[in-house]
């Protein structure tokens, strides 16, 4: 008896059913919005793939500058393609177009640059 | 009594989550902006380098900025300019995407045509060359058919290498290889240019610095003698119809000077291109850094008097020294090198090359005749206590198109901006 009396002294007031429903709605909305924002941020923020592609493209240009004219390189299952065409008649200028494709042959990044061919030196 | 307050707790949790979400958005935005900046900078850099390559391969000057779309796409526009700067050429390239712009200014030099390069070229006047004292000749030489011989001069025999020439010996022609006509015409035009206004404001300014990305700043002193003791740097041209004196305290960097006569005071140090029609006198202990130019160029059809270029004792020079006369005058132009002068680069003397003991030339010498004078005697085509060393020139040295050994391939000589 004494213990029942003791418990009765410290009664916890319960929330009403309306309060609980509103809280649940709010928490579901907030969680939903948070997940949406998170997925958007993850989707739109820095892509390591793009960064890697940019780096590989710059490396590809550097190789051409050093006199290597291999058309295709495969790095980590990525394909780096280099197209070289004359830029202007009667000059050594060439237009270099370097592209990076992923495993599924999707274009990730590309770069164009006018360079001086070392072939006619 | 403790309240359940579910709504209150949920609102607090929602606020915390909102703060976390907004910080995530801000961080993502910041990184995205940084990435876009880097990407745009790389794109601009590629476009700029493309523009520089186009300028290096261009054969014609672009005196005003030309807008060019590199690949016929968006965000690939560059502004290119190519203008003569003394015996060299200056190129400026600007790449821009909307408000972002990057630019470079540089001077260009030609690569050396190794097939034509020689440490010494002396014209064939049907007499031999003589060597005496501590003379040393390294590199390919073009000498008269009569060859090269040892001689005993001033009580001293030849003390150098027994081969006399450490390098190939080839036969020279009766005339010197000619200077580039297009550049000579350009330089002649530079002397005649009158579009610059008379400006004496330089006198009141201690320092004038002009970027090569901006229009050229020209000061014309007319017939008034002027002494330069200012700090002048960059895209600046000085003109004078009379004597122009450069004080030892003057600081000159990459500027051009066209005058009738130029005098450089003892102790001067700097980098400039000096062109005179009558004479240039460089006093002793001066030092010119690469790529400097000293040239006495006479374009008159009937030359009067003797043109003279003097480099004082113990002076150092890195670049190109030349004397040229359009008309054939009995008094040929004289290039006078003082005692122990040290020249790294190219020397083109259309007339006489008068030198003294201890002269060192690391590079190449083109001359019609050598002259060595003592108190009593005058020796022609004697090489006495002089060092000519062709291979000592840096492989990165780029000559101007003016001198005959330049190939058509151009490279960046100096980044000016």
Structure overview:
The complex is a heterodimer of chains A (121) and B (417). Chain A is an alpha+beta fold. Chain A folds into two domains: 2-44; 48-116. Chain A has three helices and four strands. Chain A has helices at residues 2-9, 17-44, 48-65, and strands at 72-75, 78-86, 93-101, 107-116. In chain A, strands 1-2-3-4 form a four-stranded antiparallel β-sheet, with helices on one face. In chain A, strand 1 and strand 2 (78-86) form a beta hairpin. The mean pLDDT of chain A is 79. Chain B has two domains: 6-112, no CATH class; 120-408, no CATH class. Chain B has a six-stranded parallel β-barrel with strand order 18-19-21-23-22-20. Chain B has a five-stranded antiparallel β-sheet with strand order 1-2-3-4-28. A three-stranded parallel β-sheet of chain B has the order 9-6-26, with no helix packed on it. Chain B is α/β, with parallel strands linked by helices. The relative contact order of chain B is 0.13. Chain B contains two helices and 28 strands. In chain B, 15% of the residues lie in helices and 45% in strands. The chains are: A alpha+beta (121), B alpha/beta (417). The interface between A and B is large, with 38 and 37 residues.
């Amino acid at each position: 008896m004494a213990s029942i009396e003791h418990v009765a002294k410290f009664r916890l007031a319960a929330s009403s059913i309306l309060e609980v429903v509103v809280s649940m709605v709010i928490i579901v909305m907030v969680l939903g919005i948070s997940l949406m924002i998170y997925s958007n941020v993850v989707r739109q923020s820095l892509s390591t793939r793009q960064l890697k592609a940019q780096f590989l493209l710059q490396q590809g240009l550097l190789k051409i500058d050093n006199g290597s004219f291999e058309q295709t390189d495969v790095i980590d299952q990525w394909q780096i393609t280099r197209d070289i065409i004359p830029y202007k008649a009667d000059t050594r200028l060439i237009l270099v177009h370097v592209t990076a494709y992923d495993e599924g042959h999707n274009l990730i990044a590309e770069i164009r640059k006018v360079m001086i061919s070392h072939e006619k030196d | 009594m403790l309240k359940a307050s579910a709504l209150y707790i949920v609102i607090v949790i929602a606020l915390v989550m909102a703060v976390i979400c907004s910080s995530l958005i801000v961080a993502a935005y910041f990184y995205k902006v940084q990435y876009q900046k880097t990407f745009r900078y790389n794109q601009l850099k590629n476009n700029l380098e493309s523009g520089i390559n186009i300028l290096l391969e261009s054969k014609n000057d672009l005196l005003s900025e030309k807008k060019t779309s590199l690949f016929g796409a968006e965000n690939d526009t560059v502004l290119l300019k190519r203008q003569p700067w003394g015996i060299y050429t200056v190129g400026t390239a600007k790449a821009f995407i909307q408000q972002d712009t990057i630019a470079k200014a540089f001077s260009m030099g030609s690569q050396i045509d190794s097939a034509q390069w020689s440490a010494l070229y002396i014209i064939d006047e049907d007499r031999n060359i003589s060597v005496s004292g501590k003379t040393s000749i390294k590199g390919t030489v073009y000498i008269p058919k009569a060859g090269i011989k040892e001689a005993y001069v001033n009580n001293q025999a030849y003390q150098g290498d027994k081969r006399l020439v450490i390098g190939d010996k080839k036969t020279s022609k009766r005339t010197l290889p000619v200077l580039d006509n297009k550049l000579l015409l350009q330089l002649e035009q530079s002397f005649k240019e009158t579009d610059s206004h008379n400006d004496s404001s330089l006198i009141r300014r201690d320092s004038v610095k002009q970027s090569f990305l901006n229009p050229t700043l020209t000061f014309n002193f007319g017939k008034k003698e002027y002494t330069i003791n200012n700090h002048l740097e960059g895209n600046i041209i000085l003109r004078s119809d009379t004597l122009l004196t450069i004080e030892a305290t003057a600081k000159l960097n990459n500027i051009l000077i066209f005058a009738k006569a130029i005098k450089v005071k003892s102790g001067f140090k700097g980098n400039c291109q000096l062109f005179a029609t009558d004479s240039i006198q460089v006093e002793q202990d001066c030092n010119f850094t690469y790529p400097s130019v000293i040239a006495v160029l006479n374009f008159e059809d009937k030359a009067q008097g003797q043109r003279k270029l003097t480099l004082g004792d113990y002076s150092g020079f890195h670049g190109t020294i030349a004397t040229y006369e359009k008309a054939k005058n009995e008094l040929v132009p004289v290039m006078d090198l003082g005692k122990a002068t040290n020249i790294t680069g190219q020397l083109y003397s259309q007339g006489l090359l008068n030198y003294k003991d201890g002269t060192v030339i690391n590079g190449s010498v083109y001359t019609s005749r050598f002259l060595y004078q003592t108190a009593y005697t005058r020796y022609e085509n004697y090489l006495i206590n002089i060092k000519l060393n062709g291979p000592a020139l840096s492989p990165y040295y780029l000559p101007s198109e003016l001198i005959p050994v330049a190939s058509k391939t151009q490279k960046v000589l100096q980044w000016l901006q």
